[in-house]
Prior knowledge:
Helix content is 30%, strand content 22%. It holds the Pfam family Fer2.
Amino acid sequence: xxxxxxxxxxxxxxxxxxxxxxxxxxxxxxxxxxxxxxxxxxxxxxxxxxxxxxxxxxxxxxxxxxxxxxxxxxxxxxxxxxxxxxxxxxxxxxxxxxxxxxxxxxxxxxxxxxxxxxxxxxxxxxxxxxxxxxxxxxxxxxxxxxxxxxxxxxxxxxxxxxxxxxxxxxxxxxxxxxxxxxxxxxxxxxxxxxxxxxxxxxxxxxxxxxxxxxxxxxxxxxxxxxxxxxxxxxxxxxxxxxxxxxxxxxxxxxxxxxxxxxxxxxxxxxxxxxxxxxxxxxxxxxxxxxxxxxxxxxxxxxxxxxxxxxxxxxxxxxxxxxxxxxxxxxxxxxxxxxxxxxxxxxxxxxxxxxxxxxxxxxxxxxxxxxxxxxxxxxxxxxxxxxxxxxxxxxxxxxxxxxxxxxxxxxxxxxxxxxxxxxxxxxxxxxxxxxxxxxxxxxxxxxxxxxxxxxxxxxxxxxxxxxxxxxxxxxxxxxxxxxxxxxxxxxxxxxxxxxxxxxxxxxxxxxxxxxxxxxxxxxxxxxxxxxxxxxxxxxxxxxxxxxxxxxxxxxxxxxxxxxxxxxxxxxxxxxxxxxxxxxxxxxxxxxxxxxxxxxxxxxxxxxxxxxxxxxxxxxxxxxxxxxxxxxxxxxxxxxxxxxxxxxxxxxxxxxxxxxxxxxxxxxxxxxxxxxxxxxxxxxxxxxxxxxxxxxxxxxxxxxxxxxxxxxxxxxxxxxxxxxxxxxxxxxxxxxxxxxxxxxxxxxxxxxxxxxxxxxxxxxxxxxxxxxxxxxxxxxxxxxxxxxxxxxxxxxxxxxxxxxxxxxxxxxxxxxxxxxxxxxxxxxxxxxxxxxxxxxxxxxxxxxxxxxxxxxxxxxxxxxxxxxxxxxxxxxxxxxxxxxxxxxxxxxxxxxxxxxxxxxxxxxxxxxxxxxxxxxxxxxxxxxxxxxxxxxxxxxxxxxxxxxxxxxxxxxxxxxxxxxxxxxxxxxxxxxxxxxxxxxxxxxxxxxxxxxxxxxxxxxxxxxxxxxxxxxxxxxxxxxxxxxxxxxxxxxxxxxxxxxxxxxxxxxxxxxxxxxxxxxxxxxxxxxxxxxxxxxxxxxxxxxxxxxxxxxxxxxxxxxxxxxxxxxxxxxxxxxxxxxxxxxxxxxxxxxxxxxxxxxxxxxxxxxxxxxxxxxxxxxxxxxxxxxxxxxxxxxxxxxxxxxxxxxxxxxxxxxxxxxxxxxxxxxxxxxxxxxxxxxxxxxxxxxxxxxxxxxxxxxxxxxxxxxxxxxxxxxxxxxxxxxxxxxxxxxxxxxxxxxxxxxxxxxxxxxxxxxxxxxxxxxxxxxxxxxxxxxx
Length: 1319
């Protein structure tokens, strides 16, 4: 953004840069994703003059956390400022778009700005720098691979992986010939010319040089912001306002204010005080100014390590290691070292290192100055027993040099590799007497255990003077466990795991010291394997191949079917010009809605008092169930739900009322002033087990049966029983739920703009709620910033509430949920428990299975029964089980209703099946892939519901994946590796996929379209599908292009609207392109048929000529198209039918490496083979496969929803809920589309591909389990064990039981109330 100079005389200190840009300057390309600096959607580049060097510096930052008051004298560059489709795109924008790195596009501007800021500093970055730059950006759609590939083109090194267009031509030696893997051509990219970048505004340079800086004061509604210039002024202010927080980056205080409502009347901003940025080399170490950002600290330490002897920089190196994974780059660029220390965060990555390294803090006040040690006395200080005196300010931190006989190390474990707070962090330092292994001094500090950094003092005292040997190790572990205590009900949970990590970390340090201790007579007889763990700061160079079948040589270039065409909105998305719901400018008088939700899981509403809320500034009205013109209840298919909680609440997050005000801030403030009196209702049913115990179920249940299970159990060689729990999953689409309702002036019609997958359902629900016909409600969906099933029922629900408010106030109303609200209210993927009894023969043949599936449906049925139907029908997955009983029950609980999510019950059901497949393999002493092959469908297969499928391509995918992944060779290498390494294990697994396509209810498979040809030859296509990143509009344009025989540039899709195509169905179930494509084809065929006589009469004419002639001849140039879709059904009484049209087949092989001591894992390699029929667009299909696969990695390994026993969701944002980051994807990621595959049921023999590949992410889960099995066997434990999903570091570590886990004290579950429970 360069809007010349912006002068603000009055700015509220509470105003963050993000709303300032979006609302006050209508620069809407910078997006809101989370509001806590955790997703990177709001990334901008800040340019400023360094207070000491006076050099211009550029860095990325999160606009959601930056107070506008802190930006005096800086230049803010947003994505609007670097390029656009109307001028010229910047190379980073162009490359991400053309390399297919933008799907829904909501995260794209933030990713663009992260890389742009990197390129301003490093025009030819390394891969490590690219990963660091992207570490603070989340993407839910792409799986990151295409983003990394596009960024890699800026790297200096030229290697085979970069030069795709030259080395990724036709594949002659692969599994199938006539396959290519060129998804983009690097030669087409604009060159990066650093000399053409925007310059730092000269007026800011002049201002910095000429004007004498003055203290700045801003007074807001609640907060005063003071920005002094000198250290002396700061000390005066701190004496005057001793409790005022000192702010640099606002990354700690800002989040506290947002999440827990902390408010301070005065803020002191010190980012303009040069003395706080001073860096000095002293005889003892390096003194670093407290206001230096963590990125500055990184540069300081890097320079020191480069210049000083290695023995002096050991502490510096450990700090550099910790800085790599501390938050995201945007946070490190603004968060200060002093703020990090002063905040005394329990999970701090740096404080334990500083304490262990004997750093000291230099404090100043009006009364003088002093140095204090950065130790446990400081970190354990409290408000009642403070270490800092009133008025004291941290000026600098002295980080000491290390010594020759000193060894320092730090360890951390988090849920994901980057941008994830440590579960436990530790720093340890030992100093030996010269030329001995006698401990002269040591320090041991932990974070994540208590309220702040904890010192193991008694352990330290017990170790001094000891030899570094096994006896010392054993004693140290006991001392640590005795000293570093943790309550079983501690916030954050994972108590036994945290206890285990404390001694596991010490053991890792013990091994490290043995390896690094200079040659002395070491007293330890322990054999050192050299495999202390998998976690390395170095990021392996990524590798990826994408293979697909080339189009026929005689296919016209104009015909893009089968070619990798870029997403039609990609250029708009990377430039930020793509308009999403909340980007639309407000109309005059538009109101903003905030929702009040229940804090109780099950309670009566005794009274609601709105008086105080209505008297708040800016408040217009409050809407409750009593304001609904027609009915508060609504139905989705056959099941009831309601808009507002009326007489009682059924879950935490139940919507009770909605406040309307002139600004979002005023609406949120007023929500807190609504006074509601509740009375609890017992019981509050939270978990599946609770529901089973109370016989609380949604009806009907679902059953399927074939053969005679009871008789089969009598004849089998063996019977195996077990159960497994699969956790839920949050959709975490990047654009939160968004709705705008604009009533007509006469209040008889409404236009609704929403991020909805099903505008017609939304239209019908709003109409029935208001008691008016549907033809008065016009719903518009331009694009959606990700959905994954989460924007069907709940979006319509919110739209109906918003419409009631608009009807009541006769004003436009906007409802945009914050991330925490969205996660709390909406529900997500259903948690499942699978209980199974399986009969099998000694040779591995499965003869019978009795399966009970339980899902946690929440308080209303909503989509749960439909989802359970699919889970029951597909519970055999890819296997022929001659005798089967499957019973599916949806538990009715006091949680928000869980809803559709990519895969629709299939991932949970299939994982349960694959889990017992692996257990039977262990019982039969056969490798799991053998059991899978023995029982896998082949040729024409009959399902338990009596439908036949040709499953030949299932076997083809399996065999091709076996071959391309080199499974057998790599399995041998994994076995060899595991024999050589005691504490690090590898695992490998190959998993098949048999995913059915279509809605079960036949009417949901229909679609319609409308195609207009204008006199100038341009074409406008409308259809019932919604664009949410999957590329449906792009494929529809390709279809229309082929049918009309015109270039895709002639064709445009504006939006999905109920006013143009009525009675649409939800874009879901992976059939969007199937049915809407056929409808568009039908309309185009009609139009082409009408033009055919004119074409024959003038065969050498142009398209434009033919269209004009048709218009002159009064031939209609508009046509509707229709597709009946698929005739599907199921008779549940008979247990038979044709519920699906066809299946998508596939297979994935994944290899992982786990750290048995911490539970950490890394994804080494994944090979995916997918049968997508004849791909309409290989780039989009590969993108869907990769994105779904990585979402599956999240479901099965990192994404963990945490609820309190009272039903309160703890994980309400990216800080607590961890979707995969760019560093969590496989280091080698290969995707191949099965060649020569035909599908007679869908358009152009293609297949739907949006959902199926998600389950293949389970190959990572089973590879992890394979690695755990290796560790357990080595320790003499059973290889049959339950690994509940997700396979988090906690579960991995605790499954790798060893002498350390045996030392952990076990708590009696009845003696405490846990922080969180499995639901």
